[in-house]
Amino acid sequence: MEQLVDRAREAGVVRPDGTVEDVRVCLGAVASFRLAHSATDLHRLVELLLIGLAADVRTSPEISARPLRARRQAIP
Fold it and tell me: Which of 27, 61, 65, 66 is the most exposed place for a label (fewest CB within 10 A)?
C-alpha cells in the first residue's frame, strides 16, 4: 500500500501530505460505516473521502451538488 500511495502522490493524484495511514483510516471508516448505513450514504462517504485525499479537487470524482439530506429525500 505504501508503494501505491507513493506512486499516486508522485503522479499528483493524491495530496502531497497524503499518507498510508490516511488511506487506512478511510478504509476503516468505509468498513465500519457500511454495516449501519444505506448504499446511498456509503456512496456519499466514499465520494467525500476521495475528495479529501485528492491532490486537486478538479481531478477528484464529481459529486452531486445536492447535499446528502436532499439526496435521501429523493429516494423513494
Answer: 65
3-state SS class at 14: strand
Rounded Cα distance between 29 and 59, Å, is 23
For the stretch 20-55, pLDDT in tens is 999 999 999 999 988 889 989 999 999 999 888 998
Residue 27: its H or E element = helix 20-33
The x, y and z cell numbers of residue 17, run together, are 501530505
Task: Assess contact for 54 and 14: CB atoms under 8 A.
Answer: yes
Residue 14 CA to residue 11 CA, distance in Å, equals 8
Given this model, what pLDDT does residue 19 score?
94
Predicted structure pTM score: 0.67
Q: Are 20 and 6 in contact (CB under 8 A)?
A: no
